[in-house]
Amino acid sequence: MSLLPAPPGSALTTPTTTSITTGTTITRPAVILPGLGNNTGDYQGLVMTLRERYGIPSVVARVSRFDWLRNAAGLLDPNYWKGTLHPRPVLDWYLERVHEAVSEAKQLSPQGGSLSLIGHSAGGWLARVYMEEFGLSHVSLLLTLGSPHMPPPKGLPGVIDQTRGLLDYVEKNCAPAVYTPQLKYVCIAGRYIQGARLAGNSNATSDISTIDKDQSMAESVSNASNNKSISVAPTLRARFIGQAYKQVCGQADVWGDGVVPEMSAYLEGALNMSFDGVYHSPVGSDDTTRPWYGSPSVLEKWVHHLLNP
Length: 309
Prior knowledge:
Layout: E1 2-4, E2 12-13, E3 21-22, E4 25-26, E5 30-33, H1 44-54, E6 58-60, H2 78-82, H3 92-106, E7 115-120, H4 122-134, E8 139-145, H5 166-173, E9 184-191, E10 193-194, H6 213-218, E11 221-223, E12 228-230, H7 233-249, E13 255-256, E14 271-276, H8 296-302, H9 304-307
Parallel strand pairs: 5-6, 5-7, 7-8, 8-9, 9-14
Antiparallel strand pairs: 1-14, 2-6, 3-4, 10-13, 11-12
Protein backbone atom coordinates (compact mmCIF):
# COMPACT_ATOMS: atom_id res chain seq x y z
CA MET A 1 0.00 0.00 0.00
CA SER A 2 1.13 3.53 -0.69
CA LEU A 3 -0.34 6.38 1.29
CA LEU A 4 -0.37 9.94 0.03
CA PRO A 5 -0.85 12.58 2.73
CA ALA A 6 -3.68 14.97 2.03
CA PRO A 7 -2.39 18.14 0.38
CA PRO A 8 -3.22 21.32 2.28
CA GLY A 9 -5.76 23.44 1.49
CA SER A 10 -35.99 -0.67 -3.00
CA ALA A 11 -32.29 -0.91 -2.27
CA LEU A 12 -30.15 -3.83 -1.16
CA THR A 13 -29.72 -3.58 2.57
CA THR A 14 -28.33 -5.66 5.33
CA PRO A 15 -30.96 -7.49 7.39
CA THR A 16 -29.87 -5.28 10.29
CA THR A 17 -32.68 -2.91 11.15
CA THR A 18 -30.88 -0.92 13.83
CA SER A 19 -27.55 0.82 13.89
CA ILE A 20 -24.73 -1.07 15.59
CA THR A 21 -23.36 0.32 18.84
CA THR A 22 -20.14 -1.01 20.34
CA GLY A 23 -19.42 0.41 23.76
CA THR A 24 -19.79 4.15 23.34
CA THR A 25 -18.92 4.12 19.63
CA ILE A 26 -21.82 4.17 17.17
CA THR A 27 -21.07 2.59 13.81
CA ARG A 28 -22.23 4.82 11.00
CA PRO A 29 -24.44 3.21 8.37
CA ALA A 30 -22.95 3.28 4.88
CA VAL A 31 -24.58 3.99 1.54
CA ILE A 32 -22.94 2.31 -1.45
CA LEU A 33 -23.16 4.05 -4.83
CA PRO A 34 -22.74 1.62 -7.76
CA GLY A 35 -20.37 2.34 -10.62
CA LEU A 36 -21.24 2.72 -14.29
CA GLY A 37 -22.70 -0.52 -15.64
CA ASN A 38 -22.89 -2.16 -12.23
CA ASN A 39 -26.07 -3.18 -10.47
CA THR A 40 -27.12 -3.47 -6.86
CA GLY A 41 -26.41 -7.19 -6.65
CA ASP A 42 -22.75 -6.72 -7.58
CA TYR A 43 -22.14 -5.38 -4.08
CA GLN A 44 -23.84 -8.15 -2.12
CA GLY A 45 -20.49 -9.58 -1.02
CA LEU A 46 -19.32 -6.20 0.25
CA VAL A 47 -22.60 -5.68 2.11
CA MET A 48 -22.30 -9.08 3.80
CA THR A 49 -18.68 -8.57 4.83
CA LEU A 50 -19.40 -5.12 6.25
CA ARG A 51 -22.27 -6.52 8.29
CA GLU A 52 -20.91 -9.87 9.43
CA ARG A 53 -17.27 -9.01 10.02
CA TYR A 54 -17.44 -5.37 11.09
CA GLY A 55 -21.02 -4.77 12.22
CA ILE A 56 -21.59 -1.98 9.70
CA PRO A 57 -25.12 -1.78 8.29
CA SER A 58 -25.23 -0.67 4.66
CA VAL A 59 -27.64 0.20 1.90
CA VAL A 60 -26.87 -0.05 -1.81
CA ALA A 61 -28.64 2.35 -4.16
CA ARG A 62 -31.12 0.41 -6.26
CA VAL A 63 -29.61 0.29 -9.76
CA SER A 64 -29.98 -2.28 -12.55
CA ARG A 65 -27.77 -2.62 -15.59
CA PHE A 66 -30.73 -1.68 -17.74
CA ASP A 67 -31.06 1.60 -15.82
CA TRP A 68 -27.79 2.85 -17.28
CA LEU A 69 -29.42 2.98 -20.70
CA ARG A 70 -31.30 6.00 -19.37
CA ASN A 71 -28.09 7.95 -19.89
CA ALA A 72 -28.69 7.73 -23.61
CA ALA A 73 -31.11 10.63 -23.10
CA GLY A 74 -28.00 12.79 -23.00
CA LEU A 75 -27.60 12.26 -26.74
CA LEU A 76 -30.56 14.60 -27.22
CA ASP A 77 -28.82 17.38 -25.31
CA PRO A 78 -26.72 19.69 -27.52
CA ASN A 79 -24.24 19.94 -24.64
CA TYR A 80 -23.39 16.28 -25.12
CA TRP A 81 -21.99 17.00 -28.58
CA LYS A 82 -20.22 20.12 -27.33
CA GLY A 83 -18.61 18.22 -24.48
CA THR A 84 -20.29 20.46 -21.89
CA LEU A 85 -22.89 18.06 -20.51
CA HIS A 86 -24.30 18.67 -17.00
CA PRO A 87 -25.33 15.89 -14.59
CA ARG A 88 -28.91 17.09 -14.47
CA PRO A 89 -31.32 16.16 -15.88
CA VAL A 90 -29.63 13.18 -17.56
CA LEU A 91 -28.56 11.63 -14.24
CA ASP A 92 -31.58 12.66 -12.16
CA TRP A 93 -32.67 9.02 -12.03
CA TYR A 94 -29.40 8.00 -10.34
CA LEU A 95 -29.40 10.87 -7.86
CA GLU A 96 -32.96 9.98 -6.88
CA ARG A 97 -31.94 6.36 -6.24
CA VAL A 98 -29.08 7.57 -4.06
CA HIS A 99 -31.44 9.83 -2.13
CA GLU A 100 -33.79 6.91 -1.52
CA ALA A 101 -30.88 4.83 -0.21
CA VAL A 102 -29.72 7.69 2.02
CA SER A 103 -33.22 8.04 3.44
CA GLU A 104 -33.28 4.32 4.20
CA ALA A 105 -29.83 4.43 5.79
CA LYS A 106 -30.94 7.27 8.05
CA GLN A 107 -33.44 4.88 9.59
CA LEU A 108 -30.48 2.76 10.72
CA SER A 109 -28.77 5.71 12.36
CA PRO A 110 -30.02 6.54 15.86
CA GLN A 111 -30.81 10.13 16.76
CA GLY A 112 -30.13 11.39 13.26
CA GLY A 113 -26.47 10.39 13.24
CA SER A 114 -24.21 10.81 10.24
CA LEU A 115 -23.63 8.47 7.31
CA SER A 116 -20.73 7.26 5.20
CA LEU A 117 -20.96 7.33 1.41
CA ILE A 118 -18.96 4.70 -0.48
CA GLY A 119 -18.74 5.55 -4.17
CA HIS A 120 -17.40 2.92 -6.55
CA SER A 121 -16.05 4.09 -9.91
CA ALA A 122 -18.45 6.70 -11.34
CA GLY A 123 -20.38 6.44 -8.07
CA GLY A 124 -17.54 8.41 -6.46
CA TRP A 125 -17.93 11.57 -8.50
CA LEU A 126 -21.70 11.11 -8.59
CA ALA A 127 -21.57 11.14 -4.78
CA ARG A 128 -19.99 14.60 -5.01
CA VAL A 129 -22.84 15.72 -7.26
CA TYR A 130 -25.35 14.27 -4.81
CA MET A 131 -23.75 16.11 -1.88
CA GLU A 132 -23.80 19.34 -3.85
CA GLU A 133 -27.44 18.98 -4.86
CA PHE A 134 -28.96 17.43 -1.73
CA GLY A 135 -26.68 18.77 1.01
CA LEU A 136 -24.02 17.11 3.12
CA SER A 137 -25.02 17.84 6.71
CA HIS A 138 -25.76 14.12 7.22
CA VAL A 139 -22.51 12.91 5.57
CA SER A 140 -19.29 12.65 7.58
CA LEU A 141 -17.27 10.50 5.15
CA LEU A 142 -17.03 10.14 1.39
CA LEU A 143 -14.86 7.18 0.49
CA THR A 144 -14.29 6.51 -3.20
CA LEU A 145 -13.05 3.29 -4.79
CA GLY A 146 -11.37 3.58 -8.18
CA SER A 147 -13.31 6.71 -9.10
CA PRO A 148 -12.16 8.81 -12.08
CA HIS A 149 -12.29 12.21 -10.41
CA MET A 150 -10.23 14.28 -12.81
CA PRO A 151 -11.41 15.28 -16.29
CA PRO A 152 -9.11 14.18 -19.12
CA PRO A 153 -6.70 16.81 -20.44
CA LYS A 154 -7.94 18.73 -23.42
CA GLY A 155 -6.28 19.02 -26.79
CA LEU A 156 -4.45 15.68 -26.82
CA PRO A 157 -4.69 13.71 -30.08
CA GLY A 158 -6.82 10.60 -29.73
CA VAL A 159 -8.26 11.57 -26.33
CA ILE A 160 -12.03 11.97 -26.13
CA ASP A 161 -13.81 12.88 -22.90
CA GLN A 162 -15.96 9.82 -22.31
CA THR A 163 -18.14 11.76 -19.85
CA ARG A 164 -18.81 14.49 -22.40
CA GLY A 165 -18.06 17.25 -19.92
CA LEU A 166 -19.55 15.75 -16.76
CA LEU A 167 -16.21 15.59 -14.94
CA ASP A 168 -15.45 19.17 -15.96
CA TYR A 169 -18.75 20.16 -14.38
CA VAL A 170 -17.96 18.29 -11.17
CA GLU A 171 -14.50 19.83 -10.91
CA LYS A 172 -15.85 23.34 -11.39
CA ASN A 173 -19.12 23.17 -9.45
CA CYS A 174 -18.74 20.66 -6.62
CA ALA A 175 -17.14 21.48 -3.30
CA PRO A 176 -13.44 20.65 -3.09
CA ALA A 177 -12.30 17.64 -1.12
CA VAL A 178 -11.39 18.11 2.54
CA TYR A 179 -10.11 15.99 5.38
CA THR A 180 -11.43 17.50 8.59
CA PRO A 181 -12.98 16.15 11.81
CA GLN A 182 -16.42 17.06 10.46
CA LEU A 183 -16.06 15.73 6.91
CA LYS A 184 -13.46 13.39 5.45
CA TYR A 185 -12.75 12.52 1.84
CA VAL A 186 -10.79 9.28 1.33
CA CYS A 187 -9.84 8.29 -2.22
CA ILE A 188 -8.54 4.79 -2.91
CA ALA A 189 -6.82 3.71 -6.12
CA GLY A 190 -5.70 0.30 -7.34
CA ARG A 191 -2.40 -0.74 -8.94
CA TYR A 192 -3.47 -3.84 -10.81
CA ILE A 193 -1.76 -3.42 -14.18
CA GLN A 194 0.48 -0.87 -15.85
CA GLY A 195 -0.61 0.26 -19.28
CA ALA A 196 1.60 0.66 -22.33
CA ARG A 197 1.59 2.92 -25.35
CA LEU A 198 0.00 1.50 -28.47
CA ALA A 199 3.20 1.74 -30.51
CA GLY A 200 6.85 2.44 -29.91
CA ASN A 201 8.83 2.09 -26.72
CA SER A 202 7.03 2.35 -23.44
CA ASN A 203 7.90 2.47 -19.78
CA ALA A 204 5.60 -0.51 -19.33
CA THR A 205 6.36 -4.09 -20.27
CA SER A 206 2.89 -5.45 -19.54
CA ASP A 207 3.77 -5.34 -15.86
CA ILE A 208 1.00 -6.93 -13.82
CA SER A 209 0.95 -6.54 -10.07
CA THR A 210 2.23 -9.51 -8.10
CA ILE A 211 -1.16 -10.83 -7.13
CA ASP A 212 -1.96 -11.56 -10.78
CA LYS A 213 1.44 -12.90 -11.88
CA ASP A 214 0.26 -16.53 -12.08
CA GLN A 215 -2.57 -15.56 -14.34
CA SER A 216 -0.34 -13.46 -16.60
CA MET A 217 2.12 -16.33 -17.01
CA ALA A 218 -0.73 -18.50 -18.23
CA GLU A 219 -1.55 -16.05 -20.99
CA SER A 220 0.94 -17.23 -23.58
CA VAL A 221 1.13 -18.60 -27.10
CA SER A 222 3.23 -21.30 -28.69
CA ASN A 223 6.07 -20.32 -31.00
CA ALA A 224 6.06 -23.03 -33.70
CA SER A 225 9.62 -22.30 -34.86
CA ASN A 226 11.29 -23.22 -31.56
CA ASN A 227 8.41 -24.92 -29.78
CA LYS A 228 8.78 -22.54 -26.85
CA SER A 229 6.04 -20.75 -25.00
CA ILE A 230 6.42 -16.99 -25.24
CA SER A 231 4.33 -14.68 -23.09
CA VAL A 232 2.94 -12.09 -25.51
CA ALA A 233 -0.61 -11.62 -24.26
CA PRO A 234 0.39 -9.48 -21.29
CA THR A 235 2.10 -6.99 -23.63
CA LEU A 236 -0.93 -6.81 -25.89
CA ARG A 237 -3.15 -6.55 -22.86
CA ALA A 238 -1.09 -3.71 -21.43
CA ARG A 239 -1.25 -1.81 -24.71
CA PHE A 240 -5.01 -2.29 -24.90
CA ILE A 241 -5.51 -1.17 -21.30
CA GLY A 242 -3.09 1.67 -21.86
CA GLN A 243 -5.43 3.10 -24.49
CA ALA A 244 -8.26 2.99 -21.98
CA TYR A 245 -6.10 4.76 -19.42
CA LYS A 246 -5.20 7.39 -22.01
CA GLN A 247 -8.86 8.29 -22.49
CA VAL A 248 -9.10 9.00 -18.77
CA CYS A 249 -5.82 10.76 -17.93
CA GLY A 250 -4.09 11.43 -21.25
CA GLN A 251 -1.30 8.88 -20.63
CA ALA A 252 -1.09 5.21 -21.54
CA ASP A 253 1.97 3.95 -19.66
CA VAL A 254 0.70 4.51 -16.14
CA TRP A 255 -0.49 2.24 -13.35
CA GLY A 256 -4.15 1.69 -12.67
CA ASP A 257 -6.79 -0.81 -11.65
CA GLY A 258 -7.41 -2.03 -15.18
CA VAL A 259 -10.00 0.69 -15.89
CA VAL A 260 -9.11 3.86 -13.98
CA PRO A 261 -5.53 5.19 -13.78
CA GLU A 262 -4.13 5.62 -10.31
CA MET A 263 -3.49 9.33 -10.82
CA SER A 264 -7.11 9.98 -11.82
CA ALA A 265 -8.53 8.41 -8.66
CA TYR A 266 -7.08 11.06 -6.34
CA LEU A 267 -8.45 14.40 -5.20
CA GLU A 268 -6.44 17.32 -3.89
CA GLY A 269 -7.38 17.84 -0.26
CA ALA A 270 -8.44 14.22 0.31
CA LEU A 271 -6.59 11.41 2.03
CA ASN A 272 -5.33 9.51 -1.03
CA MET A 273 -4.01 5.96 -0.97
CA SER A 274 -3.38 3.06 -3.34
CA PHE A 275 -3.23 -0.71 -2.97
CA ASP A 276 -1.21 -3.11 -5.10
CA GLY A 277 -2.95 -5.91 -6.98
CA VAL A 278 -6.45 -4.45 -6.75
CA TYR A 279 -8.80 -4.83 -9.71
CA HIS A 280 -11.43 -2.25 -10.61
CA SER A 281 -14.76 -4.04 -10.49
CA PRO A 282 -16.60 -6.76 -8.59
CA VAL A 283 -17.58 -8.10 -12.02
CA GLY A 284 -14.77 -10.30 -13.30
CA SER A 285 -12.98 -10.37 -9.95
CA ASP A 286 -12.51 -12.98 -7.27
CA ASP A 287 -11.26 -12.78 -3.72
CA THR A 288 -7.92 -14.51 -4.30
CA THR A 289 -6.17 -14.06 -7.65
CA ARG A 290 -8.01 -10.90 -8.72
CA PRO A 291 -9.51 -9.11 -5.72
CA TRP A 292 -11.39 -5.87 -6.19
CA TYR A 293 -11.70 -2.99 -3.72
CA GLY A 294 -14.51 -4.71 -1.82
CA SER A 295 -12.89 -8.13 -1.47
CA PRO A 296 -12.33 -9.05 2.20
CA SER A 297 -8.52 -8.92 1.96
CA VAL A 298 -8.66 -5.40 0.52
CA LEU A 299 -11.58 -4.17 2.61
CA GLU A 300 -9.65 -4.83 5.81
CA LYS A 301 -7.11 -2.22 4.70
CA TRP A 302 -9.61 0.63 4.50
CA VAL A 303 -12.61 -0.35 6.65
CA HIS A 304 -11.20 1.54 9.66
CA HIS A 305 -12.26 4.76 7.95
CA LEU A 306 -15.87 3.61 8.29
CA LEU A 307 -15.39 2.73 11.95
CA ASN A 308 -13.62 5.90 13.05
CA PRO A 309 -15.90 8.57 14.57
